[in-house]
Write a structure and sequence with these properties.
The structure holds two protein chains of two kinds.
Chain A (H helix, E strand, L loop, with lengths): L1 E4 L2 E5 L5 H8 L2 H6 L8 H11 L5 E8 L2 E10 L16 E8 L12 H14 L4 E7 L3 H9 L3 E5 L4 E7 H12 L5
Chain B lengths: L2 H13 L20 H14 L6 H6 L3 H11 L6
Helix pairs in contact in B: 1-2
The chains are: A alpha+beta, B mainly alpha.
Chain lengths: ~190, ~80
């Protein structure tokens, strides 16, 4: 699978990129804002990668810009069927997206950081039955909260762990996309 | 108002930092307050206030206050920056 737009490409994770992605994921800057704080071992990374071949409830893609890998986007189904089994992404009404730009990427604080989200969120709303994206962000992560609000997310409640829930529907995303596209003129 | 002052005001507003901290060393990978959202707001304000439309490569390369001055001069050599 390959998605492209706004100057970037999103492509499936290949084996040769596993260590690079693991290094990004285990970087202190990424761990600090991740829901799961555990560091990922090489063997855990291998198990995770092998599972991607059969799992239908998630999607992980590498972001590249001008042939340079610069981050990862992810989507997890947040819908369960009548048997309490997580629905495949294709049938999920609610999806939890994720993104990180590589800590050493020189573009991580630039407008380019919005490009993968514009491509990926557009795909998530169009690929199946998704009605809503549901993101959880630590309330101290002001940068991520601002970023999500630029994409049209609405703020919800903060739970006792300090996690803010933010939700996005297709209408609000399309509105935000129009605004962001005025600057991201690829 | 000089072009330099106008540029500094735009940076201060977009990045929400004091004017006293705006200098050529201000860079987007070295100051946490300059994140992707601030960069987006900055570009929008620069284009409005200076009546310009930047090429996307220049937008992405606008990585510091110094670089902003150089790019603005590229689009309008008459600016006093």
């Amino acid at each position: 699978m390959k998605l492209s737009g706004y100057g970037i490409e999103l492509s499936e994770i290949s084996h040769d990129k596993l260590e690079k992605i693991r290094a990004w994921r285990n970087h202190p800057e990424i761990v600090a804002v991740s829901l799961d704080k555990q560091l990922i071992s090489e063997s855990q990374q291998g198990v995770w990668f092998d599972s991607l071949a059969v799992r239908k409830d998630c999607l992980y893609l590498v972001i590249s810009y001008k042939d340079e890998d610069i981050g990862v986007v992810s989507a997890l189904s947040a819908t369960e069927d009548d048997s309490d089994v997580t629905s495949p992404l294709l049938f999920a009404k609610v999806i939890t997206p994720g993104i990180y730009i590589a800590p050493d990427c020189k573009y991580k604080s630039s407008v380019l950081a919005f490009c993968p989200s514009l491509v990926f969120i557009d795909y998530l709303f169009k690929q199946g039955q998704c009605l809503e994206l549901n993101a959880q962000v630590f309330e101290y992560n002001e940068s991520a909260i601002r970023y999500n609000k630029m994409l049209g997310y609405q703020e919800g409640l903060v739970d006792k762990e300090g996690l803010l829930t933010m939700t996005l529907n297709d209408r609000d995303f399309e509105c935000a996309k129009q605004t962001l596209s005025k600057i991201l003129r690829f | 108002m000089t072009d330099q002052k106008k540029l500094m005001d735009i940076f201060a507003t977009a990045l929400e930092i004091p004017l006293s901290e705006i200098n050529d060393n201000l860079k987007y990978n070295q100051d946490k307050r300059w994140d992707s959202t601030a960069h987006m707001i900055l570009i929008a304000q620069l284009e409005t206030e200076f009546d310009l439309m930047f090429d996307i490569d220049d937008i992405i390369d606008m990585s510091s206050f110094l670089q902003a001055k150089l790019i603005l001069k590229k689009y309008n050599a008459a600016l006093s920056l």
